[in-house]
Amino acid sequence: MTKIIHRGWFSIAIVVALINGLEVPFNTATYAYIFKLITTRDLAGVGIYLAIVLGGYLFFSLLSYQQSWVVNKNVAFINLRLKTRYVEAKVERDDPSQQDFEANGLSFLMNDLKLLEDNYWRNVFRLLGYGTTILVTTGYALHNSFRLTGIFLAFMLVPMVFQRLASKGTTTKATVWSQKNAQLATRVKDLLHGAMTIRRYHAEAGYRTKLLRDVGSVEEANAALKNRIALANSLLMYLFYLFSETPIAIGIYLTISGILTLPEFVAVQYSTNMILNSVNQMLTCINQIGSTKDVRQQLRRSISKEGVTAKLPMKSAQFQELRLTNISFKREHRDILNVVNLRVQKGEKVLIQGPSGVGKSTLLSIMLKELPVTNGQLLLNGQEYDDAQVENLFSKVSQIPIIFAETVRYNLTLGMPFSEDAILVAVRQAGLSDVIKESKLNQQIAEDGKNLSGGQLKRIEIARALLFKRQVLLIDEGTASLDSATVRQIHDTLLSLTNLTVIEVDHHIPHELLSKYDRHYQLNNGRLEALN
Ligand SMILES: Nc1ncnc2c1ncn2[C@@H]1O[C@H](COP(=O)(O)OP(=O)(O)OP(=O)(O)O)[C@@H](O)[C@H]1O
Q1: What whole-number percentage of the chain has pLDDT above 90?
Q2: Residue 502: strand pairing partners
Q3: CA-to-CA distance for 19 and 137, rounded, in angstroms?
Q4: Residues with Cβ < 8 Å from 157, sequence gap 6 or more?
Q5: Which of 418, 482, 491, 514 is the most buried (most CB within 10 A)?
Q6: Rounded distance between C-alpha atoms, residue 525 and residue 532, angstroms
Q7: What is the DSSP string of 444-470?
Q8: What is the C-alpha separation between 89 and 497, in angstroms, rounded?
Q9: Which residues line ligand 1 (CB under 6 A)?
Q10: Phi, psi for residue 101 in degrees, rounded to 5
Q11: Contact by Cβ (8 Å): 107, 184
Q12: How far, in Å, from the CA of 363 to the mean position of ligand 1?
């Protein structure tokens, strides 16, 4: 909590909110002062009254601006911390194979954290101000008439009891709203990604109904949430009015009977009215804060460090051997791999071929521990291992290149410090030199790499994998979209790096390159068959 909040700015916000909370008591005191002036016929006091009131309101107006400013400063700081921590946790710890991983993350960042800002943090600062108002105004009222103030406050307790009942249901409504938003984010992300295809086939009508339904459910859920909060607030407001009229009648009786003076009655009545208002506002804030319970829990789960296991170092940081023994893997009760055995030793170059959909990519994911096997054993350097342990040893060129909407340089280095020479060597080894001259390293790549060719994007991924110098390189159809001269050139480099272990799956490898692999397998019907 303390790391999310900037202590200095938060303290200033508390002080400003507390001082600003004095506006109501000031208001009350000056209002009661009017009646005192009238009943004592104090003509000279009128000027003093005007000066105090005008000066006071000028002060509170400026303070009100100051309060907004300091609250915005705090909210900006809190958002900065929460948003970056949330994204960091998603990138570094969450499982990217979860359904709608990207859309859910985006939706949480854009919608749920906004709900948290509006309904939680801003209300926390409001509560501080109302707290001061209630405290000081109650003191002032008690000072004027202990008895009448006691009666007012006792009546006020009744509606407060109803507050918890009235706020029930806001959390549920907020959860529904959040789920609908995530659903809409998935839909829009998908539509924007496929916009060109939809236009090409004039298929706009095909998605409109689904889009309307998803946007409609978000808006419905939003309205339902706001209505629930409004209903709770209106109910509370009515209860407050209901229970404040009786003490007013008692106050009138006491004043007519001469037990209270008119200024005392006005001071108590006005003060308690203001206390009532502030309590009402406070409960409204608490209601809204309640609607963020689920978001807060989700955020806490996401950014908490619990459950993160420390990365265990491998017995040896040097890759020696990867051994797969009797590996079987089922997907939705369907056998994909069936008793696969494979042993890859340091420096070996292994090629696995097989028809489309046979399970080649699945086999690589299993090696990386991205997928759990149904049966069998995987050993790295003779040891069982987990996904964290392969991170320092393995790199992977994916079937669909992972490209960031950043510069070419960032896409190669991922923002890590590499020497210019090392970058240029990797660029050359990946066959990118003619495409990316030194000056073009700072060229911006568009979203999803739209301003580069498929082959260029593939080569960027290969260069990245080479630059990071992991000892084992897994290549999933890494050169499939390249012309045969470039495929040959890249493989000449990759297959000649003696310390690099390569496990490649591809069915487009030119025939003359096959002999350069130490081992060549065919994956068929879930089994690996050695071809050399
Ligand atoms: N996330 C998934 N959920 C369910 N089934 C999947 C999933 N990913 C892949 N499959 C299925 O698992 C099987 C193996 O897929 P995999 O991607 O490993 O094949 P592949 O040999 O790499 O194919 P290709 O050469 O076309 O890339 C396929 O039948 C595929 O439909």
Answers
A1: 39
A2: 349, 473
A3: 13
A4: none
A5: 491
A6: 19
A7: BPPGGGTTS-HHHHHHHHHHHHHHTT-
A8: 36
A9: 331, 336, 354, 356-362, 399
A10: -55, -50
A11: yes
A12: 10
Separation of 360 CA from ligand 1 center, angstroms?
A: 8
One of 3.40.250.10, 2.60.40.10, 3.40.50.1100, 1.20.1560.10 is the CATH number of 7-303, namely: 1.20.1560.10
The answer to whether ipTM exceeds 0.90 is: yes
Q: What CATH number was assigned to the domain covering residues 321-530?
A: 3.40.50.300
pLDDT bin (cut points 50, 70, 90) of residue 167 is low
Nearest Cα residue to atom 31 of ligand 1: 357
How far, in Å, from the CA of 331 to the mean position of ligand 1? 9
Question: Rounded to an integer, what distance in angstroms lies between the CA atom of residue 123 and that of residue 233?
Answer: 15
Rounded CA separation 501/519 (Å): 12
Residue 347, amino acid? G
Going by C-alpha positions, the residue among 281, 201, 275 that lies closest to residue 237 is 281
Instruction: Look up the pTM and report it.
Output: 0.72
Nearest to 231 by CA among 287, 279, 274, 176: 287
Structure confidence at residue 163 (pLDDT): 67
Shortest-distance atom of ligand 1 to CA 523: 21
Atom number, ligand 1, closest to the C-alpha of residue 505: 22
Alpha helix (H) residue ranges in 257-396: 262-290, 293-303, 360-367, 387-390
